[in-house]
Write a structure and sequence with these properties.
Strand order of the largest sheet: 5-4-3-6-7-9-8
CATH superfamily of the largest domain: Vaccinia Virus protein VP39
Largest sheet: 7 strands, mixed
Structural class: alpha/beta
Distance between the termini: 59 Å
Radius of gyration: 23 Å
CATH architecture of the largest domain: 3-Layer(aba) Sandwich
Shape: globular
Number of domains: 2
CATH class of the largest domain: Alpha Beta
Number of strands: 9
Number of helices: 14
Strand content: 15-25%
Helix content: 40-55%
Length: 358
């Protein structure tokens, strides 16, 4: 077979693309340094201290000055911290502190870098899965994934769940205020369940996850938050969680990870009251691939390749919806489970909030 003639390279396009790649190379290596800064408390110390040099930051955090000096230089080159050439000091602007240092901030992102560390550590498993086609279960991933997922999603739940997402559902807030029975399926470390339990003390909450270590962490978190009297965490899969007559069942960022989401949908329907509601929060996505080729889609497709799709393929059926399934595909899954009513209740740039009812 004759080979195609080589195409002439456009030097301007090449230089622009290499420039883009340089940025991506810095981000790829720099992610490890963000993780280090988060774990060693460097960002939090900077947020409290104001303008600071490497010696003082190392002293405050109990770290070695020479390493801190190099870390600060890389952070400044990344635009993650600021540097004054006259004073030789570094500092965080309020916006940078909100992203890196304030875990109560709605834009706190340091937790995401736990997930990136797990992705790199799990790369050999995913490479083997590419070759074999088999799945990689959630429980097979590096432990950083579990705490990173909780830290990354927790701020969204804290800032949006009670104030915006629940009010978008028909009559749900009123039922919770009076006292409702709620199942939070795929609860992980319990961040969403605990947010709900704090807001609605008259309701009773049951968190379920098939990952036993996460349930252990959720129980500890409930005790620490002072809501253990109205929250129960149990190891159970989405198609098997116990109980019935739930007024509300919630799935936060987990339906697309399931091998048999239609089977999960059927089970949810069987456990709801006649007037109950299924709240499904999923990563934001349009229905067409070409509409998801943007920065949000870039992050979610990466997570989907490394985490979500392998998780589904490790289970029975292995439907592998992926993290960018989109509303239309999710509607098919939910209605195939027997739900008659389905709508998009609200959204954020990162989430679809869907409501299903019998």
């Amino acid at each position: 077979m004759a080979q195609a003639a080589p195409q002439k390279i456009d030097e301007a396009k090449l230089n622009a693309f290499v420039g883009k790649m340089l940025g991506d190379m810095g981000a790829a290596l720099g992610g490890a340094l963000v993780h280090i800064g988060d774990k060693l408390g460097l960002y939090k110390a900077m947020a409290k201290a104001g303008p600071i040099d490497s010696r003082a930051l190392a002293s405050i955090t109990g770290t070695a000055e020479r390493y801190v000096r190099e870390w600060l230089a890389q952070q400044a080159a990344s635009g993650y911290v600021n540097y004054c050439k006259d004073t030789k000091r570094f500092w965080l602007e309020p916006e940078q502190a909100a992203v890196f240092a304030d875990e109560s901030s709605p834009v706190f992102l340091s937790g995401f870098f736990d997930i990136t560390v797990a992705a790199y550590r799990d790369e050999p498993k995913i490479m083997d899965a590419f070759r074999s086609g088999r799945g990689v279960g959630w429980d097979e991933h590096d432990g950083c994934l579990f705490c990173g997922t909780e830290r990354f999603f927790r701020s969204s739940y804290q800032h949006h769940l009670v104030g915006a997402w629940l009010p978008a559902l028909e009559g749900v807030t009123a039922r919770l205020e009076k006292g409702a029975k709620v199942a939070d399926v795929g609860c992980g470390h319990g961040a969403s369940t605990i947010v709900l339990a704090k807001a609605f003390p008259k309701s009773r909450f049951y968190g379920f996850d098939y990952h036993a270590p996460s349930i252990f962490c959720a129980r500890e978190a409930a005790d620490k938050a002072g809501v253990a009297d109205r929250v129960t965490f149990t190891v159970a899969a989405a198609k098997e969680y116990p109980g019935d007559n739930y007024d509300l069942v919630t799935f936060f960022d987990c339906l697309h990870d399931m091998g048999d989401p239609v089977g999960a949908s059927k089970h949810v329907l069987s456990t709801l009251t006649h007037e109950g509601t299924w709240m499904i929060v999923e990563p934001f996505a349009h229905d067409r691939l070409e509409d998801n080729l943007n920065p949000v889609g870039r992050v979610y497709y990466a997570a989907s390749t490394m985490i979500c799709t392998p998780a589904s393929l490790s289970q029975e059926v292995g439907l592998a919806l992926g993290a960018q399934a989109g509303e239309a595909r999710l509607r098919e899954v939910v209605t195939a489970g027997g739900f008659k009513r389905f709508r998009r209740a609200t959204e954020t740039p990162f989430n679809l909030v869907l409501e299903a009812r019998p």
